Amino acid sequence: MNQSSILDFRSATSFVPILVLYSNDMEMISKRLQEKIASAPGFFRNSPVLFDLSELNENDMEIDVAALISRLRQLSLFPVGIRGGDPLQEKQALALAVPVDSGRSRSNPVLPEVQKKDDAVPEFQAVIRDAVHAPAMMITQPVRSGQRVYAASDLVILAQVSAGAEIMAEGNIHIYNTLRGRALAGVQGDIEARLFCLDLQAELVSIAGIYKTIEDLKEISRKKPVQVYLRDQALIIQELS
After folding, report:
1. Which of 170, 177, 212 is nearest to 192 (CA)?
2. What GO terms in the biological process aspect are recorded for it (predicted)?
3. What's the pLDDT tens digit per position in 144-166?
4. DSSP state, 11?
5. Cβ(228)–Cβ(194) under 8 Å?
6. Crossing angle of helices 26-39/65-74, nearest 10°?
């Protein structure tokens, strides 16, 4: 057998949710995570997650890393890395088979640098703190199959959303192209949220948890702009003239 045909490593762009902790109260963290998961189970459940302790450490707030990892796993979240931890926290994580994001490690600090703005799909950050008004997230490149995007605000996409992709927003979603994947607006229960799209060919659309699947969307005219909204707990899809 040709040894080169056994396996291969390939570079790929993957998007792992980053859990940024601002509190070390394990019960409050659990409660907030349960709320997040309940609001968007398709996005969070059985999802890999990288947890960031930098805010806690900067404010001298201790946390039991082993207990945190155990709690995440109990909630069907799978820790795949620790960021911003001190040497002891990193050692605790490694003992539980959670690797260290060495580029952001406190034991291996890096000098601050100017971050270039690009069009890459940003990583989702599940922030455990009081919600604040956030500007709309804008994406200018295609969202491909297997990619997931979460915006804690309105979400604006200028390129197509491929089949197998999933986009979610706590506010409105605007897609100035074709939607072939799954789009969920108002995922925190905002019944006033709306979805706007130039060409609806979606696998699923949802407003505040009320949804229609591809079977329900077969009669929708394609290549025409539409808006999706709730009226009396019913999902309305209306063509825009």
Report:
1. 170
2. cell morphogenesis; division septum assembly; regulation of cell division; regulation of cell septum assembly
3. 988 888 888 899 999 999 998 99
4. -
5. yes
6. 30
pLDDT, tens digit (0-9, with 9 covering 90-100), for 114-151:
344 444 444 444 444 444 456 889 999 999 988 888 88
What is the C-alpha separation between 89 and 95, in angstroms, rounded?
10
Q: Are 191 and 208 in contact (CB under 8 A)?
A: yes
pTM: predicted TM-score of the whole model, two decimal places: 0.54
Cα–Cα distance list, 55 to 51, 94, 223 (Å): 11, 20, 46
SS3 content of the chain, % helix, strand, coil (to 5): 20, 30, 45
CA distance linking residue 51 with residue 60, whole number of Å: 17
Residues paired with residue 235 on neighbouring β-strands, in sequence order = 230
Confidence of residue 17 (pLDDT cuts 50, 70, 90): confident
Domain 18-96: which CATH number of 3.40.140.10, 1.10.8.60, 3.20.20.70, 3.30.70.260 = 3.30.70.260
Distance CA 175, CA 195 (A): 8
| Three-state DSSP class for residue 131 | coil
Question: What's the rounded mean pLDDT across residues 160-188?
Answer: 92
Fold designation for 137-239: Pectate Lyase C-like (2.160.20)
* Burial of 46 from C-beta contacts in 10 A (0-12 / 13-18 / 19+): exposed
Residues 6+ apart with CB under 8 A from 160: 142, 143, 177, 178, 179, 180
